[in-house]
Amino acid sequence: MDAVYLAAIWAAGTAIFLMSLIIPWGVFTRYVLGTGSQWPEPIAILLMMVFTFVGGAAAYRAAGHIAVNVLVQRLPQRTQRLIEMGVDALMVAVCLFVLYYGTRLCLTTMGQSISELPWLPVGVTYASLPIGSLLTLLFVIEKRMFGSQAHRSVVRYDEQGGL
């Protein structure tokens, strides 16, 4: 799961990095050259979806997401565990919902294309929905089976496969 987590971080980081290059290019061509490029906006939207859904899965695993737990922390330990199990059950339900309907959305729109990018099927732009929900689902399962992974660093391997 560490490798999946690192892949999610790299995908989200690469997406935000590319967005930071593409958006200024669109602004430059529109306001400096006077001819707006058609491709920066749809590509930036696609990259934002990757950043949001794949990066969100990584943030969930690292417990770097927003969590309002002031009330829960004041409850007895047993009640806290029950609430945590309930939250995880709701996360599983949401992940399964988005995985199912996101996959259907991708498959349904695969034959359509974006007008600015006719080579790119619309279904590909929605692919981060089911991918991100699958990653989040895996991280929820990992949390239930092995506990939270937020307290430890990711194991790194050298070139020979050792620690």
Order of helices and strands: HHHHHH
Number of domains: 1
Largest sheet: none
Amino- and carboxy-terminal Cα gap: 16 Å
Shape, per Cα inertia axes: elongated
- Specify the number of helices: 6
**Residue share in β-strands:** under 5%
- Tell me the structural class: mainly alpha
Total strands: 0
Mean pLDDT: 87
Estimate percent helicity. Answer: 55-70%
Residue ranges: pLDDT <50 for 5 or more in a row? Answer: none
What Rg, in angstroms, do the CA atoms define? Answer: 20 Å
Describe the structure.
This protein is mainly alpha-helical and 163 residues long. The chain has one domain (2-146). Helix content is 68%, strand content 0%. The chain is built from 6 helices and no strands. It has helices spanning 2-31, 40-61, 70-73, 77-108, 122-125, 128-146. The longest helix is centred in the middle third of the chain and has 32 residues, at 77-108. The radius of gyration is 20 Å and the shape is elongated. The two termini are 16 Å apart. The model has no long low-confidence stretch (mean pLDDT 87).
Structural key phrases:
163 residues; mainly alpha; elongated
Mind sketching the topology for me?
Elements (H helix, E strand, L loop, with lengths): L1 H30 L8 H22 L8 H4 L3 H32 L13 H4 L2 H19 L17
Give a quick precis of the structure:
The protein is mainly α. The chain has helices spanning 2-31, 40-61, 70-73, 77-108, 122-125, 128-146.
